[in-house]
Amino acid sequence: MRALIQRVSRADVQIDGKVAGEIGKGYVVLLGVGSEDDADSCAKLWSKIRRLRIFPDENGKTNLDISQVNGECLIVSQFTLFADLRRGNRPGFSYSAPPELGNSLYELFVEMAKKDIENVQTGEFGAEMQVTLTNDGPFTIWLDTEEF
């Protein structure tokens, strides 16, 4: 599983010109599910994300996690995080999970987040979406469960 996490001061996702999800301070998580991922991958990735200490404390040091700042979370499915560009310039997606697996693990990941974060918003799996955000810092983190 792969995730691009952006610390934001605000964000929203729109589908067909309508806001599907909107948050204030917190994380935008662009989530990619790979063909080899499973429920353990979800748990491993969410555990790492919820414990990230990337919010500033009273001294300006990045010492606080999302729960300590009452942060919110916008989770958007993004299979393109598994794009393969080793040959040529047109991405291949053979390492992305098939839609049924991708959707079920995306939904599981969202449910895990909802157990820890009061306001979790989402896009719609498989939909064309427009994500708007104000990156705070800017602060962007790349995580891949194959690397931890």
Number of helices: 2
Looking at CATH, the homologous superfamily is D-tyrosyl-tRNA(Tyr) deacylase
Largest sheet: 6 strands, mixed
From the N-terminal CA to the C-terminal CA, the straight-line distance is 11 Å
Strand content: 35-45%
Radius of gyration equals 15 Å
Low-confidence residue ranges? none
**Could you say which structural class the secondary elements and strand pairing correspond to?**
alpha/beta
**CATH architecture call:** 3-Layer(bba) Sandwich
Extended strand count: 8
Count of folded domains: 1
The CATH topology corresponds to D-tyrosyl-trna(Tyr) Deacylase, Chain: A
CATH class: Alpha Beta
Characterize the structure shown.
Helix 1 runs parallel beside helix 2 (99-116). The chain has 148 residues and is α/β, with parallel strands linked by helices. The strands form two sheets. Strands 1, 2, 3, 6, 7 and 8 form a six-stranded mixed beta sheet that branches. The chain has a two-stranded antiparallel ribbon with strand order 4-5. A hairpin with a 5-residue loop joins strand 4 and strand 5. It has one domain (2-147): D-tyrosyl-trna(Tyr) Deacylase, Chain: A. It has two helices and eight strands, in the order E-E-E-H-E-E-E-H-E-E. The protein has helices at 39-51, 99-116; strands at residues 2-15, 18-23, 26-32, 55-56, 62-64, 72-77, 120-122, 130-144. Helix content is 21%, strand content 38%.
